Amino acid sequence: GAGVSQSPSNKVTEKGKDVELRCDPISGHTALYWYRQSLGQGLEFLIYFQGNSAPDKSGLPSDRFSAERTGGSVSTLTIQRTQQEDSAVYLCASSLAHGGGVYNEQFFGPGTRLTVL
Amino acid sequence: AQKITQTQPGMFVQEKEAVTLDCTYDTSDPSYGLFWYKQPSSGEMIFLIYQGSYDQQNATEGRYSLNFQKARKSANLVISASQLGDSAMYFCAMRLNNFNKFYFGSGTKLNVKP
What we know:
Low-confidence stretches of chain A: none
Shape of chain A: globular
Largest interface: A-B, 25 and 20 residues
Number of helices of chain A: 0
Oligomer: heterodimer
Strand content of chain B: over 45%
Radius of gyration of chain B: 14 Å
Low-confidence stretches of chain B: none
Helix content of chain B: under 10%
Largest sheet of chain A: 6 strands, mixed
Number of strands of chain A: 10
Number of strands of chain B: 12
Order of helices and strands of chain A: EEEEEEEEEE
Distance between the termini of chain B: 41 Å
Distance between the termini of chain A: 37 Å
Helix content of chain A: under 10%
């Protein structure tokens, strides 16, 4: 079946503009994660959605960042008034809900490379 | 608080030799899973191996094995018979089974020399 998809693959924007990044998780995966990866760095957790529960937003770096997940499937990460330090690769991942002793790895999308000029 | 530590920012290994990538973790929760991911220069994240906190035996997947030492809270990845295609970033991650949230280490960049 299809994997996690993200769009756009690349986004170049000017400082101060708003951007929207999209993630389509694997069908049936109830957990969805957004991460940020700066060049040569590790993954920085941003936000996590699990089913209909309230999302864990503890990783969002500022109130310019927000995310939503409609219908328990597609998610959009929005960055308002972009700054140059927002330049990074934004990775989305999805997984099945845990339980029953089955481990549930994350499946990652290809990422969106955001460049803020 | 949960934390994953990878102390080796970069490693070199000769082709066909084995290499160990270190990972230590910190949690007070007794139920968790440990994961290793590979990220080649292309940027994709590839799942390699998983170890559950209650698993009695170390996990193995082909040339990958996980040296799980629970008392020391370490979960080192061992790659045997290194290949040039193993050159990549490697990330250790932990998930608490009750929360499904993942915590990632800062990664280790492995270079395999011919």
